[in-house]
Design brief:
about 350 residues, mainly beta, 25 strands
Length: about 350
Amino acid sequence: MLFLRNILGLVICASLIGAAPTATEDTAVDRAEIAKRAAITDVANTGYATQNGGTTGGKGGTTTTVSTLAQFSAVADNSKNNDATPRVIVVSGTISGAQQVRIGSNKTIIGLPGAKFSGVSLFVWKQKNVIIRNIISEYVLAATGDGLTIQASSNVWVDHCEFYSDLNHDKDYYDGLLDVSHGSEWVTISNTYFHDHWKADLIGHSDNNAAEDTGHLHVTEHDNYWLNIGSRTPSIRYGTGHVYNSYFKNMNTGIDTRDGAQILVQSSVFENVTEPIAALYSDSTGYANVIDVKLGIGSNTAPVGTLTANSPPYAYSLLGSANVVASVPGQAGATLSI
């Protein structure tokens, strides 16, 4: 079985469902940011992104380094929906702007240490085989889009990234940090740090989208750290989810399973989360199977589903809930050394 060495951390600051999460400082131990070596040609090796032939991104294509929005748009923009040329795009420094950039098939977008998109929304629409790694995404306004949107796409690996905004505005000032919708398939989100945001991670965008989503939306989320989040870590409709080795801290609602979704949650910790795992906000319930999960002050109120530890079609390794807090926060995020 593959050994997954990072952990999800979810943090929110509220003891009542309607209360606002409050930003808290991480201790030095929490955010040690342990550097891990990576290559720009790495391919997905965990979760659902390993299925359907795997996810290789731009491996084998040309490599281009960009440091401005104009440069990035020139090599990454797929506004005509016709760019499937394999390409590795290396991001250097901070790229700023209120713009949504569409990413084409067979692309790897990977950041050098400290690489950041500020206000820039990444959009993967009707594409396949995309890798996004070691990127920091901040302050993407709702009018621009989500930090990252994946729609009607397959084989996407998001790894060692950081997504955040702030809690100083109302919940609709920003949209999602990372949303997966419109029948997308074979997605892995791993080793990523989500924090200080109202509506973090939506899988399946609408109760009225059963025809497109049913039988799709296979998403793995593992070794992620969630801190100071209002809700959606994730909120999943219709799909099949696998969450493990994750740390959720200071939240109102955590994992929300809806509209027939099935989710398996393992080897994770919830700390100061009012409703860690539930079936909320939709007329039709979803389901959750929960194994070795510390729920803290809350409980799991979702109906039991059909998934078991043997259901995922890939190998995976569990840290064990006793080891999650010590292991995940320092490694999740844009901590890769390229």
